[in-house]
Amino acid sequence: EIVLTQSPATLSLSPGERATLSCRASQSVRNFLAWYQQKPGQTPRLLIYDASNRATGVPARFSGSGSGTDFTLTISSLEPEDFAVYYCHQRARWPLPFGPGTKVEI
Amino acid sequence: EVQLVESGGGLVQPGGSLRLSCAASGFTFSDYWVTWVRQAPGKGVEWVANIKQDGSAEYYVDSVKGRFTISRDNAKSSLYLQMNSLRAEDTAVYFCVRDNCYASGACYGDYWGQGILVTVSS
């Protein structure tokens, strides 16, 4: 079973700063990894699929990279609406766990 | 407009059963894998189970294997989750999710229902 770990657990930044979030898989998931954003009281929103492809309507300030076991979500310049929890999610093999999340806070 | 609406949640005693339903609209339900994801209060999201377009394959997280059964009725555009032998740790909001498959062959949840709360408590 693949286990995903995310770091840091919490990222304290200011609007305009760059955010770098990490996701590590216990074994290779090739590039079958997604990133989701969840704001309080809302459902998760797909941001990135296949490690580096932005989902429909996702702003260009969000980018994903990596393959195999190490992945990164980068937010180039934080907007106020970007403060949320971010989850990675592997789709390489069942079961399909999510990571524990990184909270991006002001 | 894609819509996924869950129903059937509520309060149940430990060891009891509950059946969740998800009514889908706005897309051709039979073309998509669909998934149940849950989120315990104040916790992260957890993938629970998913099922292939024609119902011929289904997969589960280890913690629910043998207790939960995912199923679908394409004629009714509906997804179900039969939950038996419920435990306190199954308490969560349960989301119905449409999986969109991309050119790579991998499928990712692109539309989520608003979720339904299941509380397991005596």
Concise summary:
The complex is a heterodimer of chains A (106) and B (122). Chain A is mostly beta strands and 106 residues long.
What do these coordinates show?
The complex is a heterodimer of chains A (106) and B (122). With 106 residues, chain A is mainly β. Chain A has no helices and ten strands. Helices cover 0% and strands 46% of the residues of chain A. In chain A, the strands form two sheets. Chain A has a six-stranded mixed sheet with strand order 2-10-9-4-5-6, with no helix packed on it. In chain A, strands 1-3-8-7 form a four-stranded antiparallel sheet, with no helix packed on it. Chain B is built from no helices and eleven strands. In chain B, strands 2, 4, 5, 6, 9, 10 and 11 form a seven-stranded mixed sheet that branches. The model of chain B has no long low-confidence stretch (mean pLDDT 97). Chains A and B meet through strand 4 and strand 9 of A and strand 5 and strand 10 of B.
Instruction: Describe the main β-sheet of chain A briefly.
Output: 6 strands, mixed
Sketch the topology of chain A as an H/E string, one letter per element. EEEEEEEEEE
Biggest interface, CB < 8 A: A-B, 27 and 22 residues
Strand content of chain B: over 45%
Mean pLDDT of chain A: 96
Based on secondary structure, the structural category of chain B is mainly beta
Please, what is the average pLDDT of chain B? 97
Distance between the termini of chain A: 35 Å
Broad shape of chain A: globular
Number of strands of chain A: 10
**How many strands of chain B?**
11
Structural class computed from helices and strand pairing of chain A: mainly beta
List the helices and strands and how they pair.
The complex is a heterodimer of chains A (106) and B (122).
Chain A: E1 4-7, E2 10-12, E3 19-25, E4 33-38, E5 45-49, E6 53-54, E7 62-67, E8 70-75, E9 85-90, E10 102-105
Chain B: E1 3-7, E2 10-12, E3 18-25, E4 33-39, E5 45-51, E6 58-60, E7 68-73, E8 78-83, E9 92-101, E10 107-112, E11 116-120
Parallel strand pairs in B: 2-11
Antiparallel strand pairs in B: 1-3, 3-8, 4-5, 4-9, 5-6, 7-8, 9-10, 9-11
